[in-house]
Fold this sequence. Notes:
Layout: H1 2-7, E1 11-13, H2 18-27, H3 31-35, E2 37-41, H4 44-60, E3 67-76, E4 95-98, E5 110-118, E6 123-127, E7 133-136, E8 150-161, E9 165-168, E10 182-189, E11 192-197, E12 202-206, E13 215-217, E14 220-222, E15 233-238, H5 245-255, E16 261-266, H6 269-272, H7 286-306, H8 315-322, E17 327-330
Parallel strand pairs: 1-16, 2-14, 2-15, 3-17, 15-16
Antiparallel strand pairs: 3-8, 4-5, 4-8, 5-6, 6-7, 9-10, 9-13, 10-11, 11-12
Helix pairs in contact: 2-4, 2-7, 4-7
Amino acid sequence: DDALQALAPSTIEARGDSAIVAAEKWLSLSPADRDQTSIYASGRALRSAVNEAVQRGLKANGELGPRSGRLTVHSRVNVTHEELRYLRTYQPGMVLNFRSRDSTQKLSKGDYTVKTIDHVRKQLVLEDRKGRLRKFNPARLRPDANDSRLALFERKSLSIIEGDKIRWTDNDHKRGLFNADQAKIVAIDTKGVTMETSGGKELRLSRGDPMLKRMDLAYALNAHMAQGLTSDRGIAVMDSRERNLANRQTFLVTVTRLRDGLTLIADNAEKLGRAIKSNSGEKASALEVTQRLKAAAAKGLSQDKDVGSTSPASDKPELTKERVKPFEIGI
């Protein structure tokens, strides 16, 4: 309660519009301030909504593009080893990744799609990449093992645009790519994607590269992703309908460690603390939302020009001069 009261002056109530409001808040910052400000969301759905809204605003303002692509990526399901032992954790269509061979159940290293759940036999029917069906009994996993060999993912469609900031959702140690580390999309074509890693190296991912399935937009993060990360300022987006209170507490503890300050955006301020601002409650049209996000991004960019900063100027002239009609590439 004390923490929420302390945040009350920096709390914004945005009923049903919290992802858009959070994106506007971040986009309206100068490029330099954006780099020092992180967005934290209380759940995966809200994080995805914020990511899409920020991307939409940047694209509308000419800061991304012109080329785009659509990927089918694996979004990690945040579950414990103990939860992986129960059938209720799984749903058809999920992807179960074995980082090494499971000799007990004769499953090789790799990805398996959950086809069906056999509650009678208490086992999963998995499909390997060659289309062969295999059986897997989660209950046979050792209950006391600190086993990082297994990871569970959901498939989702992800739109990427040249200039987007992404984060890796898995490791590729040989190429120096690590889970939660970030990169920038430099170019997209019919043969693949060119990235700039956090270390400044150029990396080419050709069609079929497994790391094209192991990425997500990085404009917004969840609380567990923020562990160990520091930033000057933060924008926290919370949904009162999130049922997992423990995650919410972790989320608040994480963002209150920010060096300078925090803006809290909530769908229902009555449940989170005193509200100082609310919107009209009217659902804006798609065009109105895009215009709002574009205006916020333009405001942020103009601030950078006003102070004579030398931030990402190298990207802007090329986007302006090119005048290439944006097109999407299926990868």
